[in-house]
# Entry
Amino acid sequence: MSSRKAELRDLRNFKRDMLLHYPNSGECAGWLKTITRGLTDDEAVDTLSKYEGRYPQTRCARFAKQMNQELKRKQVMEKGRE
# Structure
């Protein structure tokens, strides 16, 4: 595994831990973007849905919902172009 991939994996794990301990932080949007970086759209939607359900009534859930809506809107636009 290249060092860049290892760094990204470590960063994702760190951000997951931060969300676990601080799901109502204002930094959640950035943490979620880091966690979903490099994932396919379907994987990102699944991951964001898990965070949305895991931490209801928090900023994490609100940001996850917004990001999910953006990804779904993007998928619909891409299907419309085909």
Notes: The helical segments are 3-21, 28-36, 41-54, 59-81.
